Amino acid sequence: MPPPLPPSAADTAAARDAVRQAAARRPGRPAEQVVRVQIGRLEVTAGGTPQGGGRARPREGERPRTTVSLADYLARGRE
Questions:
Q1: pLDDT tens per residue, the chain (79 residues)?
Q2: Closest CA to 44 of 60, 61, 62, 68
Q3: C-beta separation of 69 from 42 below 8 A
Q4: What does pTM read for this prediction?
Q5: How many angstroms separate the CA atoms of 70 and 27, rounded?
Q6: What are the Cα distances from residue 38, in Å, to 9, 10, 35?
Q7: What is the rounded CA–CA span in Å between residue 64 and residue 57?
Q8: Are the C-beta atoms of residues 64 and 58 closer than 8 Å to each other?
């Protein structure tokens, strides 16, 4: 059996055109969705401090004092 013949230039061009047309028929990407998030209150606590170090803990029922408000923290980033 003789070896297969290589494709002609016309066959190659036709194959490229078929691929381009198939790609053009594919649906486009869906529109990007925008999600807006608003945080009303954010509380962050750190891990425990080593024995004998750190600040004194607030009494039970007493809310710890905030050292930096969220507004102040965010304002620093704009400076």
A1: 778 888 788 888 888 888 888 777 767 777 888 888 887 887 777 776 666 555 666 667 777 666 788 888 888 876 6
A2: 68
A3: no
A4: 0.27
A5: 44
A6: 60, 60, 10
A7: 8
A8: yes
